Amino acid sequence: MSLSLFASSVSAFYPYPARNSRGWDVHNKRSVPITPSSETTDGAGSITLDIKKIKRDNDFSVLRSNTPSAPNAIAIDQDGSDYSYFSTLNFGSKGQGMYMLIDTGSANTWIMGSGCTSTACQSHNTFGPSDSTTLNTTTQTWQIAYGTGQVAGVLASDKVTFGEYDINLTFGLAIQTSNDFNNYPFDGILGLGPSSSNQLDTPSLMQALDDQANLQNNVLGVHLNRASDGSKDGELTIGGVDESKFNGRLNYLSTVQTGSWEISVDDAFVAGKACGLKGKSAVVDTGTSYILMPPNDAQVVHALIPGSTQNGASYTVPCDTTTQVQVSLNEVKYSISPKDYIGKSSGDSCNSNIIGHQAFGANEWILGDVFLKNVYTVFDFDKNRIGRQTDPMKADYEVLIMSRFRNDGWNLGLKFFFLSNTIPV
Q: What class is the 246-418 domain?
């Protein structure tokens, strides 16, 4: 079926890992719902998308991406409002398809179990013994806490297939979920963070792939599509990158020592003016819908956007603003499209998708999907990985590689292939 873009009234989603969590029954992920903030008008400029219903008790709408042509790549679908991005992974001997949120915020992977009686589970695909003859469940329990609820269950293991890969994986099988998941199509979370952020005390998906599939390169390439563009080209590439998505040179930027995909931020710029936000860092998180920064930082940014107003942690901006908002990384400025930082209309203005919320420390941000829709990102887990040099004269995209060596010998690198930033020589 077709419907006007951003017709949904769900909240944006952003799980993020709490610090200093260890063992079981720990608060290692949290979710805070935020009022939706993306739409187009219903007038002549409205956009109609091919958004299809999926067969779950609660008819979620899903904007499906085209099947990628790149090797070892799978489609990243979304909810049609740029709030959540997910891929289909097939579990068990019968290949039960599960929508999995693409989450670089942690390495925890879990799915909703058939024994779950929570309301959210009843409206999603679930997985259990009747779905697979090879499922192995344990009595070892786990619990992940969220801001408005929690997910809890037992550990289980089974075969998982996606793209060209077929591996055995240990994952969380949820028997209790909070009602927050009623609003989103995904049936679980696919943890793609560094292995040190996995609180389930099991090999992460990337570790399992590296051990069993002999990855040529232990990397992930992520391209998040913008629903309003109609491109339907969201893509997750495992073990490599889709070079058709970029053309550029490589720069290196180290991650900070937090066990997550966190990088140093030089500053933010609005209309070309520096915000003076020094000493900041940001977690790069595909599971977070918005850009989150501590209230004082968000206030500084919005003060430079003409016509912006504050309402607690939220801000409004003129719906037709073209004010340039940029984030500087490694002395290079990267623009965030107004399509992404301007959200849903609120009276005579529109909500801002840059939120004044302190997720971690007073100097830490989260660069979520509002930022990542503007870039092609490669998360590089390899040790001894060296960036590939390309001809800057031909660059349509700027590329950053962020890498560091951890004590365990793994190189946790992060590459950004920034869209539409021609590189001066």
A: mainly beta
CATH number of 2-218: 2.40.70.10
Q: Name the E strands within 182-252.
A: 188-191, 219-223, 235-238, 250-252
Q: What is the mean pLDDT of residues 201-223?
A: 90
pTM of the predicted model, to two decimals? 0.82
* Given 77, 79, 82, 103, the catalytic residue: 103
Considering the chain, what percentage of its residues have pLDDT values greater than 90? Answer: 56
Same fold flag, 2-218 and 246-418:
yes
47 in Cβ contact with 4 (< 8 Å)? yes
Amino acid occupying residue 81 = S
Dihedral angle at the C-alpha atoms of 255, 256, 261, 264, nearest 10 degrees?
-70
Domain extents in the chain: 2-218, 246-418
- Reply yes or no on whether 380 is catalytic: no
pLDDT in tens, 316-346: 999 999 999 999 988 878 899 999 999 999 8
Residue 201 among the catalytic residues: no
The SS3 call for residue 371 is helix
CB-count exposure of residue 278 (10 Å: 0-12, 13-18, 19+)? exposed
pLDDT tens figures, 96-113: 999 999 999 889 999 999
Catalytic residue (choose from 285, 340, 369, 380): 285
